[in-house]
Specification:
homodimer, mainly alpha, globular, 1% strand
Chain lengths: 289, 289
């Protein structure tokens, strides 16, 4: 999955639109801090890859969609890190937003990024309005309730948390938005792309659980063993380390097999394989052996 | 401004879409609690009045736009009431959302309502997609940064708060979305409707300041004298009570005069006059004398 600079540029365009003269300076600085420098940008890269696979590489529509997906992801990280949830001190090897600024600013940054995600696609799709309703609905479904990140986070506030559902909403939903959004932005039928997003999302969450259990803070860029410390439901706690890795491998196989006929199917299958190695490198798995 | 039942029904349709089987039950209950029963629904009533004034009464597009504007308003109330900001115990004569549920749920309710506002118009405008980019941009501008509610709230986090700007963003922005959104949903040019939204928004904020200074908790449905207690910049503190009422009258006059030529101009002028009396009734002003 290439196109890193296209993603950073699309994010820069989006952020610049609210980071103008007249914006309260601490809010503007904190929005920028929450978005740059980013992590692996895996969701927007996935979105661009699908659009390219559907025959529209270098598409400004796909780039805007990809950026909006990443903005929603950043928003969820900022709100999840807040004291009332994870109370996380670190994110991407730096103080989390509420530690670097304050809790009020972090609350507003999350709100601003959610709004910005929708503004950003509305701007980009002004000349392709017939595609906009689908894009907004795909972003909304992934971000909100009952099928998105907010609902996933809300399962943490219930006495009984259905693990599969939690994982599907907290991570899977935005991966589905990436594959579906990539297809929609290219004018393709999004339906056959849902499974790829679902499988990759679940696999990514499993890999995250494994890294949280095995990794160090320096490798993770955030506090390690955080899930266990918070008594959070994780795959490793449920399936064991080996069981989790087996499930990860099965999901990545299913992901590859789900890729529908399209101009870039071969290219996408190669990408999924590379991604599997990046997510759970052999060097990490040796620690589990 | 009539159409109360149309607004409640449009809000019900919007909320029902996330309050389905599979939504975490406490989140679903809290979303409903944040939206029903409402306050005066002044912003959505304004939006419908403008659409009717532009020649499209009883328009499902205007009703969806009106509902989305109210959802953004509800979201901002829930987040503003949180402990890190106002720490308000009461809202609409009941415990605020974070008191009735908890802080985590209140954070998520605000997020969910922002997302829902955009989903809701995307659904309604699927068959009128060319109007959707303008609607999304109008909602986003009013809700986000640098020109909307989030930016207004962020001015509270700066050492120096420009009062005019604060008021314009915290209240005026959503009134502008109501007039502009009403015109856009009716397929009319939104430009001549901005001034009406700006003047009404500023007047409404002034009336709110006066009621906060003079009213009782029972009348307000929230804690009285809150602004003064929080050392918040208010018009009453700056202009005095009489000066504030004079400014209010001038704004309502300017609002009436700004109404552009349209099929329902006369009807709209009458509405503005009624609204002025509702916002600052003579009985309240006698207390200030």
């Amino acid at each position: 999955m290439e196109s890193t600079s296209a993603i950073e540029q699309a994010l820069e365009v989006a952020v610049a639109s609210c980071d103008t003269l007249g914006c309260p300076p601490r809010l503007a600085a904190a929005i920028r801090y929450a978005v740059f420098p980013g992590g692996a940008r895996i969701r927007p890269r996935l979105c661009l890859a699908i659009a390219a696979g559907c025959g529209e590489p270098h598409s400004p529509l796909a780039e805007a969609t990809a950026a909006s997906i990443e903005l929603l992801h950043c928003a969820s990280l900022v709100h999840d890190d807040l004291p009332c949830f994870d109370d996380a001190a670190l994110r991407r090897n730096r103080p989390s937003v509420h530690r670097a600024f304050d809790e009020r600013i972090a609350l507003l940054v999350g709100d601003a990024l959610i709004v910005l995600a929708f503004q950003n696609v509305a701007r980009a799709f002004s000349a392709a309005a017939p595609r906009l309703p689908g894009i907004v609905l795909a972003l909304g479904r992934a971000a909100g309730a009952p099928g998105g990140i907010v609902a996933g986070q809300a399962w943490e506030c219930e006495t009984a948390t259905p693990l599969e559902e939690y994982r599907r909403l907290k991570t899977g939903a935005l991966f589905v938005a990436a594959t579906v959004g990539g297809a929609l932005s290219a004018g393709a039928d999004p339906t056959p792309w849902r499974t790829l997003g679902e499988r990759l999302g679940e696999a990514y969450q499993l890999a995250d659980d494994v890294r949280d259990a095995l990794g160090t803070e320096e490798e993770l860029g955030k506090n390690a063993h955080r899930d266990a410390d918070l008594g959070r439901p994780t795959a490793v706690a449920e399936l064991g380390l080996q069981g989790t890795v087996q499930r990860f491998d099965a999901l990545m196989r299913e992901a590859t097999e789900s890729i529908p006929q399209c101009p870039g199917a071969e290219f996408l299958r190669d990408l999924v394989e590379l991604e599997a190695q990046r997510l759970l490198p052999a060097s990490l798995l040796q620690r589990a052996a």
